[in-house]
């Protein structure tokens, strides 16, 4: 008799989990443990750096090796009298939130490996030595480290397939569908963690360009638009080059610094978005101009084109 399709997928889940636990063992018990041992001697690289590279890999390894894999193995042994994996995956799903930290840290980890390999020959040699071992299958540490990043999407695909192949009245249908929903939410959680990290990194770069002024640095701000603008001076009918940063709660009116030591801009004026009014000005002498009025003051600004003006007004 042919194995039912859903059992084949459940077996594939078990086999890939076994291989995955071996990969986690290599990362945690070989790379991390040996690099840490060397770091403690003070000859290769600071212990802190090793911890930063491997993030929370130990917790991830323990969870899969000591809990999830044994549970799956038990299930597959009992498959004939109890054909179900949905409930086990439901237990797994909340713990996958641990991956948020690892995934968020991944790019930084790869950067650290590169930087310290250049800085410390013993560090580079130790990694090269471990990579030569049979267990590494000719792959680099970075390659092995990518595996946990790809694991949650893999669960999602396998489980989707499993739910699709389940007979309509299967006793596992309700549990498996709920498990899939939970895994989907975790995948979203991990993507959101990456997006949030990118947002904060970009925001930090903007704050550095502004000279890290105390009252401006706030992690909850969102940068909406930035760019050069001409400020119209009605007094002597001329324009001068300025630069705007528009956040969700404030408009920063800046002057580009001539000597860029540290900051790139100097903030001349901070205007609150709350209560701000913006309208186009029909000025024949200065086309593409608009007026920004806030409780602090009003500015007549000129964009380089009509499109740019409309983008700022919007």
UniProtKB/TrEMBL annotation:
Q: Which InterPro entries would you find in this protein's record?
A: DBL_dom_sf, DH_dom, FYVE_RhoGEF_PH, PH-like_dom_sf, PH_domain, SOS1_NGEF_PH
Q: Where is the PH domain?
A: 222-314
Q: Does the keyword ATP-binding apply?
A: no
Recorded GO cellular component terms are: cytoplasm; cytoskeleton
Which keywords does this Swiss-Prot/TrEMBL entry list?
Cytoplasm, Cytoskeleton, Metal-binding, Phosphoprotein, Repeat, Zinc, Zinc-finger
Its main localization is cytoplasm
CDD domains per the UniProt record, alphabetical: RhoGEF
Q: Where is the DH domain?
A: 5-193
One biological process GO term for this chain? Answer: filopodium assembly
> Pfam families, from UniProt?
RhoGEF, SOS1_NGEF_PH
**Which residues lie in coiled coils?**
none
Q: Where is it located?
A: Cytoplasm, Cytoskeleton
Q: Name one GO molecular function term.
A: zinc ion binding
- The superkingdom of the source organism is Eukaryota
Protein known as:
FGD2 protein
């Amino acid at each position: 008799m042919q194995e039912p399709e859903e059992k084949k997928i459940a077996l594939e889940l078990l086999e890939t989990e076994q291989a995955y636990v071996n990969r986690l063992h290599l990362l945690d018990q070989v790379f991390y443990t040996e690099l840490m041992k060397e770091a403690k001697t003070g000859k290769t690289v600071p212990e802190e750096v090793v911890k930063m590279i491997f993030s929370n890999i130990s917790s991830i390894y323990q969870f899969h090796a000591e809990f999830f894999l044994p549970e799956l193995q038990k299930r597959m042994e009992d498959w004939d009298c109890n054909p179900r994996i949905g409930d086990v995956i439901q237990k797994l799903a909340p713990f996958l939130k641990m991956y948020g930290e690892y995934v968020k840290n991944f790019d930084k980890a790869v950067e650290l490996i590169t930087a310290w390999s250049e800085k410390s020959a013993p560090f580079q040699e130790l990694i090269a030595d471990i990579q030569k071992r049979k267990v590494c299958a000719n792959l680099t540490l970075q390659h092995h480290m990518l595996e946990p990043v790809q694991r949650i999407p893999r669960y999602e695909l396998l489980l989707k397939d499993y739910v699709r192949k389940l007979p309509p009245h299967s006793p596992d249908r309700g549990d498996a569908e709920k498990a899939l929903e939970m895994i989907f939410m975790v995948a979203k959680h991990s993507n959101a963690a990456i997006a949030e990290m990118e947002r904060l990194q970009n925001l930090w770069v903007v704050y550095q360009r502004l000279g890290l002024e105390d009252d401006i640095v706030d992690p909850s701000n969102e940068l909406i638009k930035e760019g050069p603008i001409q400020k119209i001076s009605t007094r002597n009918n001329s324009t001068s080059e300025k630069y705007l940063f528009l956040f969700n709660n404030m408009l920063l009116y800046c002057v580009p610094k001539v000597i860029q030591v540290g900051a790139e801009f100097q903030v001349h004026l901070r205007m609150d978005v709350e209560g701000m009014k913006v309208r186009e000005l029909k000025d024949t002498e200065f086309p593409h101009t608009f007026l920004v009025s806030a409780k602090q003051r009003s500015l007549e600004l000129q964009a380089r084109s009509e499109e740019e003006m409309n983008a700022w007004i919007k």
